[in-house]
Structure prediction request, 370 residues.
Amino acid sequence: MNRAWSFAVVPYLASTVLATSFASPAFAQGAPAPAASSAAPAPAPAPAAAAPAPAPAAPAAAPVSSENRAMAETLFFTGRGLMEAGRYEQACEKFGESYRLDPAAGTLLNLAVCHVKVGKIASAWGEFKQAYFDAKKAGREDRMKLAQEHIDALEPDLPYMTIKVPSNVKVPGLEVVRNGSVLTQGGWDAELPVDPGTVEIVTRAPGYKPKTKKVAIEKKQHLEVTIEPLEKAPVPVVRITDPGWSVTRKVGFGLMGLGLVGLGVGGYFGYRVTQEKADSDKLCPVFDGERRCTTAGVGKMDDARRDAWISNIGIGLGLASAAVGTYLFIRGGNTTPTTTDTAPKSVASSLKWSIGPTRDGVAGVLVGAF
Prediction:
């Protein structure tokens, strides 16, 4: 079938589906009514990347609740109105949600036609394939014929993409995501249909940086895309520091030590004052009720006065410093444990030693990526 013929038939078939499936999906349940009206719930549509061969039979779907059926019917007719208004992107969203709530065959056909309108021919092709198998299972030859005509019209224009995953790229947990859908390992290195346009391919794996690639593909094109090796993600090397004294506590401890020094100095000079006073008294005897000092006695008395002044200052400063230091030491507390994350850019260039003091001595840490 040539491309011109396929372009001619698709609009006609699309109008056929729209004309014959206007009946409500719920209303069509259990009745041989309009050709493309919704029938009993059918299995979920095959993904666009599925192979042409039918998938294994899926287990029977759970019964659809009345609430879901009502929402699905409302969304179905909303989608029909949007289609008639030419708002195809929004219409496809409504049909898709309607089909998720109540997988009726008529909704699936309308969703496929909508995808044709927005150029997602691979998605539409997969949905028509699913509709064909559903119709075959239900014995609806009219729908089988309609779906097959669409399939035949779309297949010549389908683009195909092969995502090659070399062995050196395959790491544990590798995932290949194509346009938001995870492509399992069975889909690697296989030629699969894809919607024309820009295709986003994301590769990711635990412990590696995800990589995104966008490629453009056109109708009828067969394209191969090779996945590149992933780059190791930075390995956080966590160094936990032991809790220690805070700066406030350290300052307080220093002031306490300074206060002890001041008290020591004051005490020392106070002791010297007593000695110098005793020496001065010996050199300054009392005669007839009057103290008379020699030159040496006067010198000892002056030394005693000087040392007494130094002692008073030392003891005063020592007491004040010790008091403030004790307050700060008590209120300062300890620091909380901290962690340091190191994110090396490469293994070869980031290995280094880090050595520092700890409470118990000295600790060394090797930082790097392995």
